[in-house]
Write a structure and sequence with these properties.
With 199 residues, this protein is mostly helical. The protein has 10 helices and 2 strands; from the N terminus they run αββααααααααα. It has one domain. The N and C termini lie far apart (66 Å).
């Protein structure tokens, strides 16, 4: 009976594996997840233009932009989205949505300002490309002790994706603390301040 049960299970390739909607590895599942999120945002963008501008901006900020994809940005060490090509596509759709809702044409500086948090003078509709590294590093840092405890008997991982993201962050914003902060805001804030300075 166990053999029949096992044979009834569908075999999934590693690159197609997901856990709670988040891809476990770089590959087709991650590409498909981002493609679906871009399609969802494009569909929402067309429909948000049918309601009042203020309501549309609130819905875009709280439901259809970065909050919709944070689970993809926080993906495990095997499938980070930090350099995924879909980030720029998602941001382009966000920019188009803001332009349609506000009936304006945003220049680059205006788009940067609009994507700042509200308390920094923006609309709070964050660019996912600017959140990708902070979200991933915070997620990875917060689970490092759990990973080391769980994998204590295994060959240790080099955390290549984490090291790559830390080097990228360090190249832009300075030294990395000895103990990695667990809050995304720590990793995000220097980028916000840099964008404010540009604006």
């Amino acid at each position: 009976m166990n053999d029949a049960l096992l044979q009834s299970l569908k075999r999934v390739e590693l690159e197609d594996a997901t856990l709670l909607g988040a891809p476990l590895f770089v590959g087709a599942a991650l590409d498909s997840a981002w493609e679906n999120r871009c399609e969802d945002l494009a569909r929402a963008c067309d429909r948000l233009c049918l309601i009042g501008a203020q309501d549309a901006l609130i819905m875009l900020r709280s439901s259809f932009s970065a909050p919709k994809v944070l689970h993809l940005l926080h993906c495990s060490d095997c499938s980070p989205s930090a350099n995924h090509q879909a980030l720029s596509s998602f941001d382009a759709i966000l920019r188009r949505a803001i332009q349609l809702i506000t009936n304006s044409n945003l220049a680059e500086f205006q788009w940067i300002q609009a994507s700042l948090p509200v308390h920094d003078g923006g609309l709070g509709i964050r660019r996912v490309s600017s959140l990708a590294i902070p979200a991933f590093v915070a997620s990875a840092a917060s689970t490092l002790s759990l990973q080391s405890d769980s994998l204590s008997g295994c060959v240790s991982s080099d955390n290549n994706f984490l090291q790559s993201c830390l080097l990228s962050w360090s190249a832009q914003f300075g030294d990395i603390p000895q103990i990695l902060p667990l809050k995304q805001s720590f990793w995000d804030r220097p980028g916000v301040l840099a964008n404010k300075a540009v604006v």
